[in-house]
Write a structure and sequence with these properties.
This protein is mainly beta. It is 5% helix and 31% strand. The chain has a single domain, classed as Methylamine Dehydrogenase, Chain H (7 Propeller).
């Protein structure tokens, strides 16, 4: 029987002042109320401009927009080390495994040998199925285990139904009638030349499968899913259901078993009273401008930076317009909310307000949370990257935002709003990687603004230090082909190499702020998380 547990009630936000940053993180900071007031004003500056809000998910050009795609490459304070499969779309999420001195990226169904950074090579084309990749070494099984995810189609807008499901409810028939897997697959990846499928696990026959998941080689996997059709309170025009966090026991990957499910109260049918407490449920009448609607629930995944069996009982999740939420996983069968950060309502009223949580600076007591812009040409408010102090788990406090990227001086537009496509952050480097994450450096994929690198030594005053913007791919006449130039980023912390996943290939980069790159094959001496991939060959 499924054990599903939600939060009892929405906790009112508490605004506290004071300063408790360590000396090297600044002597003072604004109160939470002051910080959010300033952030709100900055965000509304563009939202209140003359940019027109069109009711669809396609192009939104303005008189200032360029009329072509920018095929130039821009680079500042970075060095291009290699370019793999030029012109090919390689934007998918990346994970890494190693065997001896050989390193392999798993991405988009392929295994790529990146042992020699200068000469990436396709090692196993089409070796597995699924894009939502998670790979880790299971020391008990003495095997590398690859988990991939599968989900149903979205209810995106069409020329005939520009406001998606609000114009045409039958768009959801694609989900209802979907015949493929809704869940995850497990592979034995010990021989990357020959992946062997172990099992498939369904998260629910009438749900929408999984979107982004997390697996660390331990007892549990954490899945971003809506398991059935009761999770209906999704205001987004391109999704029907609201995802939550499903914990699955994968001690035996051949026979995964659901342990529990947690969701934001108000997500399900019968929880209308809780849903009515969502401020954003009344912000914008959905049938007026559907593409301005918020995305509710877990975008995923919930990251658990230490294996549960090693004492890792905290999960950090991005729950869209419901905020950044910390979960207590001490009893995996009864997940409980500890604390939450919800920004000013305008940041939650459209797009995916919280998309990913970066936990690589937890030892400093902070995380970084970013949203995802879902519309092009700034037809939404700019969603910032929040630096959040979580040392008081019950009251996460924002202390800064990463600087908003600006175009290179030589670019033919003064603001990325006028470069065609989506402008905003998408993903930080994945939590699992070789080497230890730098505490003073972070990189983010930023769609049409490329790859952006930041000095976060002083978390109250982050500074951009480098960027790389590859040529924009796609065809301006085919929306969806050009709107997410740089999709993902992966950092080898021990070799000081940054992998940039873009729509024109996979790029290897170096940045002096990260350190001199190591280009030759190198065995992995340690991984980013304690006891991660312990015992790997």
């Amino acid at each position: 029987m499924r054990a599903r547990h939600g939060r009892n009630k929405l906790r009112p936000q508490i605004f506290q002042g004071g300063s408790h940053l360590t000396p090297n993180e600044g002597a003072s900071r604004p109160t939470r109320r002051e910080f959010l007031r300033k952030a709100a004003g900055a965000g509304l500056a563009l939202a209140g401009s003359s940019l027109t809000a069109w009711g669809d998910h396609h192009g939104h050009p303005t008189p200032n927009s360029i009329t072509y795609l920018d095929r130039r490459m821009y680079i500042h304070n970075m060095e291009l080390l290699a370019h793999f499969v030029p012109g090919q779309h390689r934007g998918g999420k990346m994970q890494m495994m190693s065997v001896g001195s050989r390193r392999y990226l798993v991405q988009q169904g392929d295994v790529i040998d990146i042992s020699d950074v200068r000469k990436p090579a396709m090692f196993n084309k089409g070796g597995f199925e699924g894009y939502q990749v998670q790979v880790a070494y299971n020391k008990n099984l003495k095997k590398w285990i690859l988990m991939t995810g599968a989900q149903t189609p979205i209810t995106d807008s069409t020329p005939e139904a520009p406001m998606g499901k609000y114009d045409d409810p039958h768009l959801d028939d694609k989900r209802k009638n979907y015949k493929g897997l809704r869940g995850v697959r497990f592979y034995d990846a010990s021989d990357p030349a020959k992946m062997v499928k172990i099992s498939e696990f369904s998260t629910g026959a009438t749900g929408q499968g999984t979107h982004r998941n997390y697996y660390d080689g331990g007892k549990y996997a954490y899945l971003d899913t809506a398991p059935d059709e009761t999770f209906i309170h999704q205001p987004s025009y391109f999704r029907e259901l609201v995802n939550g966090n499903m914990i699955v026991d994968v001690s035996d990957p051949a026979s995964p078993k659901e342990v529990s499910m947690w969701w934001v109260p108000g997500s399900r049918r019968g929880e209308e009273a809780e849903y009515d407490k969502w401020i954003w449920s009344k912000l914008v009448p959905p049938k007026v401008v559907a593409d301005q609607t918020p995305f509710a629930g877990l975008h995923g995944p919930v990251y658990v930076p230490k294996k549960w069996e090693d004492g890792g009982h905290r999960g950090y999740g991005a729950f869209g317009c419901n905020g950044f939420i910390i979960l207590d996983l001490s009893d995996p069968a009864h997940q409980q909310e500890i604390g939450r950060f919800e920004p000013p309502p305008q940041y939650s009223g459209m797009g995916i307000a919280f998309h990913t949580i970066y936990c690589g600076i937890l030892e400093r007591g902070f995380v970084i949370a970013n949203g995802e812009t879902t519309n092009s040409d700034c037809n939404q408010i700019y969603l910032p990257n929040w630096v959040i102090d979580i040392r008081d788990e019950q009251n996460p406090v924002p202390v800064a935002q990463l600087p908003r990227p600006v175009p290179p001086p030589e670019a033919p537009y003064r603001d990325f709003c006028f470069k065609r496509g989506r402008f905003g952050a998408h993903n930080p480097p994945h939590l699992k990687a070789p080497g230890k994450p730098r505490q003073e450096f972070i990189a983010y994929s930023y769609f049409i603004a490329g790859l952006r690198c930041y000095d976060i030594g002083d978390l109250t005053k982050p500074e951009e230090v480098a960027y790389f913007i590859p040529p924009q791919g796609g065809d301006l006449k085919k929306f969806g082909s050009y709107d997410r130039t740089v999709d993902n980023v992966f950092v080898e912390w021990d070799r000081n190499v940054i992998w940039c996943a873009a729509d024109t290939g996979l790029y290897a980069l170096a940045c002096p702020n990260l350190g001199k790159p190591v280009l030759d094959p190198l065995p992995v001496a340690e991984w980013s998380l304690d006891r991660l991939n312990e015992g790997a060959p």
